[in-house]
Amino acid sequence: MQVSVESVGTREVELTVTPDEGRIRQAMRQAARRISKARPVAGFRPGKAPYELVERMFGRETILNEALSEEASAFYREAIQEAGIQPYEQTLFGLESEDPVVLKVRVPLVPEAKLEDYAALKIEPEPEVSIADEEIDDQLKSLQRQHAEYEQVERSIEMGDQVVAAVIGKADGQEVINMESATLNVTDEMMPPGFAEAIMGANTGDTLEFTLSYPEDFDNEELAGKTVDFMVDISIVRQTTLPPLDDELATKVGESDGIETLTQLRERIAQALFEQKEAAARSRETRAAIDALVSVATVEFPQAALDNEIEQAIQSQRSRLTRMGYEFERYLQMIGQTEEELREQLRPDAERNLTERLVLAEYARAEGIDLEPNEMQAAFRDFAANLYGVYGARAEEAMRNAASSGVLASVYGDARVRKAGRLLADRLAGREIKPVTPIGEPNPDLQEFLDASQEAPSQE
């Protein structure tokens, strides 16, 4: 068998394969027997008709196609081996010529990442995390409001009240806010600054008009830095009665965690805030470390690898929407995009994610980073919970089912890359590398206190 290799793109080659004529003849005779066995020729037992007769009846092309369908996998394996290449995925032969038989196939190659000397790389470590008493107090105030009692009153709005109002906001003549019935807690933390002061003193039925500006660093990018003309119609004013900050409130909000005193609640909140800040700091360091490593790396991958990355992102969105009770096609209609437009939108992030994963995988290989058995088990439990929404014994069952489908290898690779990223961050920040907490290891649910204290905008 003759094999020639030609580069046709980044990490993509075209193989031209010319099988031995004798092997093709033998394969065609075997194919003719299979054909005449499935569709017997009159006067002959199934599979026993002479080759020449079968060829006259069914045609050489039919026999050749049958022969190649049987032999294609073997031809592909041998051609790959002779060419000395590693395919990213198997692709199909195209018939270039029937006589002599010449086959061609475009083969995407496994991605390749090369690291230059990364020993001198460094990042600025994040400052030591600390929690101020004021931060704990803010969380306690939010928990107070979560358990407040509200009574509708017929008086003007005061600081601390709760109001129900229709809020319209326009910037440069364009409507940027439209809330028909928003429930607003009147505090000095209302956004934009000055909103609380602008509605103070108003009564039920009043319509207010005023102009305020959002900070440049406001979370909502569509509103950040914009000057907005507001029109607010007040429909309800409620007096807020906050529960006292005492052990009774602490027991109520922390009952499931065995909290009985305000001191214990403060300690619990402090711990949750610390872990939240610590996780955010480590995440920022990991981001900086990955950026530094990518800057000294050369990465090449075939188009097929990027297409697969985009497909995985699409499938991940499909799964999330399904769990939320939405159909993917309906979601596309809601955002006014076709699937192809969404794929193009996802392409830059997919390319960045693929590049970073390849670079971290090469770093893990170079440094001999691997997963411990408990890390692998925890990684798959986390994967099963996120993708399938299953836990415990059902997660273990999902792991067994996935072992034969190749999913387990993907989960392993992703978990190994994440571990490599954390170890890289420690190294570049100049910290002593410590044993890494198993990925996905369940921790006490401290976050619930912080989640509970975040007052999301509501509508009635």
What would you say the CATH architecture of the largest domain is? Orthogonal Bundle
**Number of beta strands:** 12
CATH topology (level 3) name of the largest domain: Trigger factor, domain 2
Query: Structural class from helices and strands?
Result: alpha+beta
Order of helices and strands: EEHHHEEEHEEEHEEHHEHHHHHHHE
Our measurement of the CA-to-CA distance between the termini, rounded to an integer number of angstroms, reads 75 Å
- Count structural domains: 3
Helix content: 40-55%
The average pLDDT value, as a whole number, equals 89
**Whole-angstrom Rg:** 33 Å
**CATH domain class name of the largest domain:** Mainly Alpha
Give the biggest beta sheet.
6 strands, antiparallel
Beta fraction of the residues?
A: 15-25%
The low-pLDDT segments are: 436-450, 452-460
Could you list some keywords that capture this structure?
460 residues, alpha+beta, Alpha-Beta Plaits, Chitinase A, domain 3, Trigger factor, domain 2, four-stranded antiparallel β-sheet, 12 strands, 19% strand, disordered C terminus
